[in-house]
Amino acid sequence: MAATRFAYVKTYELPDPILPNTYFVVRIDGQSFHRFSDTHAFVKPNDIRALRLMDNAAEDVMRALPDAMLAFGESDEYRKTSTIYNRRESKILSTVVSQFTSSYVFHWSQYFPDQMLQYPPTFDGRVIVYPSEQEVKDYFAWRQADTHINNLYNTAFWALVQQGGMSTSEAHQKLKGTVSADKNETLYSQFGVNYNSVEARFRKGSVVVKVERPIEEPPKDSVSSAQSDNSPLDQVGSDNNDAGEKDAEAQRIQHRRKKKETKKAEKAANRKREWVLSVMHCDVIGNEFWQSYPSILQ
Q1: Cα–Cα–Cα angle for 291, 57, 35, rounded to 5 degrees
Q2: Helix (H, G, I), strand (E, B) or coil at 271
Q3: Which end of the chain is more exposed for a tag (fewer CB within 10 A), N or C?
Q4: Are 283 and 207 in contact (CB under 8 A)?
Q5: Strand bridging mode 23-30 / 68-72
């Protein structure tokens, strides 16, 4: 940046680093998406096209940001040790939201080929900081529980409207004050729907995990290995005097140490890994998921 007399204005920029040694989650929400879904004729209660588009946008965010390890719906979780953008909250938040929004718009025609965007969608975001693994696990459990609650309500509501002939206000009134068991009973007794048989994507949401895949490197040339094994340093003669023997032994020890370090480095190189994304529709409530993907919280 040019050092001019106007540069002093930069001092007004406030630092906003996220606390070190903490996990942070970026949560993204669509602005007025009820109106957006109505305008673009989303299928009720769930439009598979819209959900896949959301998944695609989340995947694009995770590809763009190396430290994003897990996404659920519209939430991305970052490593505790992440130093992305020096942990500046404003930079992280603006980057994630803009990446998600641009990806959503960019891929729209892929999922809605017969439906043009009527107006640009808008997303807002926030950063939430958590001190330990347990709070992170509980956050995603909360989001999945919320997904279940909302989807059960919407499934029952739209069954009453689309199949039961009720108006939206009548359906709202019928479901007012009901618990999960009541909604399950309504679905099964009136429409023959077992909620547990509803597609897992709708009941549990989408879980996007960044996992490591090993990259196997080609083996070293056997000839060079043989030559390395027959290094002159290992062939130091035994006819030297005592001083020469000590020097030769020191050289042999040094050479063996170097060979050991070289092998260790080669093993490390063979364990190089690349990140791949996996989209699942599974439970994140409980320990089984987290035990299966320990790298998420490392």
Answers
A1: 115
A2: coil
A3: N
A4: no
A5: unpaired
279: helix, strand or coil? strand
Q: In what order do the strands lie in the sheet with 23-30?
A: 123-130, 23-30, 75-78, 68-72, 207-214, 273-280
Backbone angles phi, psi at 188, to 5 degrees: -80, -45
Tell me the C-alpha distance between 50 and 163, whole Å: 23
Q: How far is CA 37 from CA 31, 32, 203, in A?
A: 11, 9, 19
- Give the residue among 206, 212, 260 at the shortest CA–CA distance from 69: 212
Q: CB of 191 within 8 A of CB of 164?
A: yes
* Helix pair angle (48-64, 89-106), 10° resolution: 140
Each residue's pLDDT, cut to its tens digit, for the chain (298 residues) gives: 567 899 999 999 999 999 999 999 999 999 999 999 999 999 999 999 999 999 999 999 999 998 899 999 855 666 677 889 999 999 999 999 999 999 999 999 999 999 999 999 999 999 999 999 999 999 999 999 999 999 999 999 999 999 999 999 999 999 999 999 999 999 999 999 999 999 999 999 999 998 877 665 555 554 444 444 444 444 444 455 555 666 777 777 787 788 777 767 655 554 556 788 999 999 999 899 999 999 898 8
Q: Which of the 8 DSSP states describes residue 214? A: E
Beta strands in 172-295 (DSSP E): 207-214, 273-280
Backbone angles phi, psi at 254, to 5 degrees: -65, -40
Cα four-point dihedral sign 180, 185, 191, 194: positive
CA dihedral for 156, 161, 165, 166, sign (positive or negative): positive
Contacts of 192 (CB under 8 A, 6+ apart): none
The beta strand positions in the chain, using DSSP E, are 23-30, 68-72, 75-78, 123-130, 207-214, 273-280
